[in-house]
Design a protein that fits this description.
CATH superfamily of the largest domain in chain A: Metalloenzyme, LuxS/M16 peptidase-like
Largest interface: A-B, 68 and 65 residues
Order of helices and strands of chain B: EEEHHEEHEEHHHHEHEEHHEEHHHHHE
Strand order of the largest sheet of chain A: 1-2-3-11-4-10-9
Distance between the termini of chain A: 67 Å
CATH architecture of the largest domain in chain B: 2-Layer Sandwich
Structural class of chain A: alpha+beta
CATH architecture of the largest domain in chain A: 2-Layer Sandwich
Shape of chain A: globular
Mean pLDDT of chain B: 95
CATH class of the largest domain in chain B: Alpha Beta
Strand content of chain B: 15-25%
Number of domains of chain B: 2
Number of strands of chain B: 13
Largest sheet of chain A: 7 strands, mixed
CATH topology of the largest domain in chain A: Cytochrome Bc1 Complex, Chain A, domain 1
Radius of gyration of chain B: 23 Å
Low-confidence stretches of chain B: none
Structural class of chain B: alpha+beta
Number of helices of chain B: 15
Helix content of chain A: 40-55%
Low-confidence stretches of chain A: none
Strand content of chain A: 15-25%
Oligomer: heterodimer
Number of helices of chain A: 15
CATH class of the largest domain in chain A: Alpha Beta
CATH superfamily of the largest domain in chain B: Metalloenzyme, LuxS/M16 peptidase-like
Shape of chain B: globular
CATH topology of the largest domain in chain B: Cytochrome Bc1 Complex, Chain A, domain 1
Strand order of the largest sheet of chain B: 1-2-8-3-5-4
Helix content of chain B: 40-55%
Largest sheet of chain B: 6 strands, mixed
């Protein structure tokens, strides 16, 4: 087991890779009573088509999320109950590119870690238990149907991309989950829940060697091939659609203004690109920008307005979201301001200041056990060491930011998704 | 580890010294009685103050300062704790030890908070009209936005019906009709009044010792005018008279059920730990009765949970269900409560709930800022209990006490949000 001190961040991290391919990270937090463990599979809702051992498989939308619900079935019964018996708070989430299971506890860490690992080691559901879950997931999907925030992004992605699976909601649809059977879940479990496709992260006052020992004991011993997912041809050229409008029971229009970006292949370059994108968004429209001040003073945006970058399985975008009586005016102002900045040159001092602010916030993020685990896994699956973020920030130049804005913030790559209030009688 | 001192008459500081985090936090709270005349003014005031100070006259100047302080956050803070209202600010910021250029970040934050309170931008002796008008628009938009999240909307509507003749029904952020009437003059007059007549509760958590923190914070509030303080408190109705049912229709795909109960117990009562445990057994967690039965057994919903309003003595159950399942879900929710009342709780259920609650409270010490809420609530009810003393009490609660807590609960109001067509 390898131990690294990240003196500048005041953290230490233990790293191990088991013979079965499982990667483990332990970040000790002496003096804390809370312990947090997260195990993630490099498998999300976007991974619906893949090849494994020469065989190509296509699955219905929503399998990763359905599987997440069903992994709580264990040979000893419902894992929720076992965690509860040991005073732990468990939960799980599925995103476009990750499925993760986690718990937080203060006592019985070992027992809870065992429950977590046993849960993901072997599937234990039956046709009957899979059937039973369908209505619960159906209600979850209906809940998102009424959520303007979910709809805003679903519509943005549908307009922005031609075929990438990010266009489909994470939980799938009531129709797509109707096609999911125990066999579908088993197939995807076998493909994506191999230890070589997973990572375990623990934060807290724990013994790293013990974590490794328990993982070795409970997870399958074989090292398996990792599946090769297929997301279709690259998304290039103009966005298929530039505007989306939907009416819902909301009080005022809310919007997401997105710009599709290119992504570098290499993980480290990709991380730097992400940082350049975030800094670019801040320079252009962050709280300390001239544009933000103007739009705020004209009541075109409020303090909920924000911008940032995200990427999923080969596609990326920078987006600005907020509430506004006139989303089109915000869009036009933003495009115009970007043109002006590129014409007049970006402000070196603003860049330095925004970097300082971003790094400060990232350092403070290390107080959150959840954030540490999530970021370690997400970066690891992209081939990057999370704790190198200060270095990545240091390497990003103002020229990188300029290039990003120049390439990305333009009408061809842009989509404005708006949710408007229903017209009342 | 925690201490509470009086810095000025009616101005109290609680400090929680810890070296565990990279983040320090402070909140400054001006306590007011929750009432219609004041609520909207209290809600608007900090937003207007945060628009500019004499040395940082607009939002951009303020953001520039916060960027230089390594991305510190200063925000408005409006709390409603039973029928006590409070307005103020919170800030979280990097600890000085991690400031790469050696800046005294916390001292800077204190200096800025002082400016917010003592040096707002004025014209003709009152707030700037443009600031007031634009923050009125933002506040009205926020008030209207309560319909956006249907789950919380259902609970807001239920609460307002349940407490319609009580001050509890007054919204945390005020009411549109009253916000619209606010002028720079009326807001400034209110500002002068509440500065002088409010009890102030300040909470700090971070690496500074109690002494160092007190010194900086004393400098922050030095010269605050002090007059006779306005009393604050909550009227408690211990049981419901009759059950009210209310339905509303909207274009939604999922129905939202919200049920309000009177618990006959508040956080100031000795039975409070038993009520906390009862809630955990009944619906406060995924291992509780509501989750296991309404969701897992009957598959009626994705979520069904209960929560406690500890100042006013209320319990709320909420669930998202198909429209036609209204009766069956409501009956099952009541049936599970009846089970608690008749003592149909296993030792295992009780112990799971207890462990989980205790673990939750112990974890409070492991997140920056998360003790703020706890110690603020202690200050409001005038108790000096600690997280540890509450944990000790939870360990002692018996099955009989949990059942007794359940027996005191009465159903008051049932609200259902459903679609436009059946």
């Amino acid at each position: 087991m390898n131990c690294k001190d990240v003196a500048r961040l005041g953290e230490r991290v233990y790293e191990a890779e088991l013979p079965n391919g499982l990667s483990i990270r332990v970040v000790p937090k002496p003096g804390f009573s809370r312990k947090y463990a997260l195990i993630a599979a490099d498998y999300g809702s976007a991974d619906t088509k893949f090849t494994l051992n020469g065989k190509t498989v296509t699955t219905p939308d929503g399998v990763a999320h359905y599987l997440e619900h069903k992994m709580f079935d264990t040979p000893k019964g419902d894992a929720m109950e076992q965690f509860a018996a040991m005073g732990a708070s468990p939960n799980a989430f599925t995103s476009y590119d990750m499925t993760a299971y986690y718990f937080s506890c203060t006592e019985h860490f070992e027992e809870n870690l065992r429950t977590l690992l046993e849960m993901v080691a072997v599937p234990c559901f039956t046709e009957e238990s899979v059937e039973k879950e369908r209505d619960i997931i159906g209600q979850e999907i209906l809940m998102y149907e009424d959520s303007a925030d979910s709809k805003l992004f679903e519509e943005l992605f549908t307009a922005m991309f031609r075929h990438h699976p990010i266009r489909v909601p994470i939980a799938g649809t009531v129709q797509s989950i109707a096609q999911i059977t125990a066999e579908t879940l088993n197939t995807c479990f076998d493909a994506f829940y191999a230890p070589s496709n997973m990572m375990l992260c623990v934060v807290g006052d724990v013994d790293p060697a013990q974590v490794v020992r328990i993982a070795e004991e409970l997870l399958p011993k074989d090292r398996k091939e990792r599946p090769v997912p297929d997301y279709g041809p690259a998304e290039t050229g103009e966005c298929p659609c530039h505007e989306s409008l939907r009416r819902m029971e909301v009080s005022m229009p809310s919007f997401a203004l997105g710009f599709r970006c290119e992504l570098p292949e290499d993980g480290w370059e990709s991380l730097k690109w992400e940082i350049a994108a975030d800094l670019g968004a801040e320079l252009l429209a962050g709280e300390s920008s001239a544009l933000y001040q103007r739009l705020y003073e004209e009541n075109l945006i409020d303090s909920d307005f924000s911008g940032g970058f995200e990427c999923v399985r080969g596609v990326g975008l920078v987006s600005f979201t907020g509430d506004s009586a006139e989303p089109e005016a915000v869009r036009d102002a933003l495009l115009e301001e970007c043109e002006r900045l590129l014409r007049e040159g970006l402000d070196e001092d603003a860049f330095r200041r925004l970097k300082k602010s971003a790094v400060g916030r990232r350092i403070r993020d290390l107080d959150s056990f959840e954030s540490i685990c999530y970021r370690i896994c997400a970066n690891f699956f992209d081939g990057v060491d999370y704790f190198r973020f200060p270095e990545a920030y240091a390497e990003v130049t103002l020229e990188d930011v300029r290039l990003f804005l120049e390439k990305t913030v333009c009408p061809e790559r842009m989509v404005l998704s708006v949710i408007e209030p229903k017209e009342r009688d | 580890m925690t201490e509470r001192i009086e810095l000025l008459p009616g101005v109290f500081l609680q400090t929680m010294q810890t070296d565990k985090f990279k983040t320090g936090c402070i909140s400054v709270n001006f306590l007011r009685p929750l009432c219609r005349e004041e609520a909207s003014l209290n809600a608007l005031l900090p937003s207007v103050l945060l628009r500019g100070t004499e040395s940082r006259p607009d939002i951009r100047e303020i953001s520039l300062l916060l960027d230089e302080l390594y991305g510190a956050t200063v925000g408005t803070l409006i709390r409603k704790k039973g029928e006590v209202h409070s307005w103020g600010f919170y800030a979280d910021f990097i600890e000085d030890a991690y400031a790469l250029d050696g800046e005294a970040v916390f001292a800077e934050i204190c200096r800025f908070l002082r400016e917010l309170l003592f040096a707002p931008v004025l014209e003709n002796g009152v707030f700037l009209e443009s600031f007031v008008e634009s923050e009125k628009v933002n506040l009205c938009n926020t008030l209207a936005a309560e319909i956006n999240d249907k789950r919380s909307y259902a609970t807001i509507r239920m609460m307002r019906t349940m407490c319609e003749n009580e001050r509890q029904a007054i919204p945390r952020l005020g009411e549109r009709e009253i916000v619209e009437q606010i002028t720079p003059q009326s807001l400034y007059a209110h500002f002068e009044k509440v500065l002088a007549t409010s009890r102030v509760e300040i909470l700090y958590m971070g690496r500074k010792s109690g002494e160092e923190a007190a010194k900086l914070i004393r400098g922050m509030i030095e010269g605050l005018p002090r007059k006779e303080l306005t009393e604050v408190g909550t009227d408690v109705i211990r049981s419901a008279a009759e059950v009210r049912e209310l339905e509303e229709r909207m274009e939604v795909t999922q129905g939202k059920l919200s049920m309000g109960f009177r618990t006959g117990c508040t956080c100031a009562d000795p039975e409070y730990p038993a009520l906390l445990l009862l809630n955990a057994v009944y619906g406060g967690a995924v291992s509780s009765k509501l989750f296991r039965n309404v969701r897992e057994k009957l598959q009626l919903c994705y979520y069904a949970s209960s929560s406690i309003e500890k100042y006013k003595g209320l319990m709320v159950v909420s669930s998202g269900i198909d429209f036609e399942n209204y009766e069956v879900a409501k009956n099952e929710i009541l049936h599970q409560l009846e089970d608690c009342r008749s003592g149909n709780i296993t030792e295992e259920e009780l112990e799971k709930a207890r462990q989980r609650l205790i673990s939750g409270f112990r974890s409070l010490k492991d997140r920056p800022g998360s003790q703020d809420e706890f110690y603020f609530s202690q200050a409001i009810i005038g108790k000096n209990g600690t997280v540890d003393s509450l944990i000790a009490q939870l360990r002692e609660v018996t099955m009989g006490q949990v059942v007794a807590a359940a027996r005191k609960i009465t159903l008051d109001t049932v609200y259902f949000l459903k679609g436009v067509t059946d």
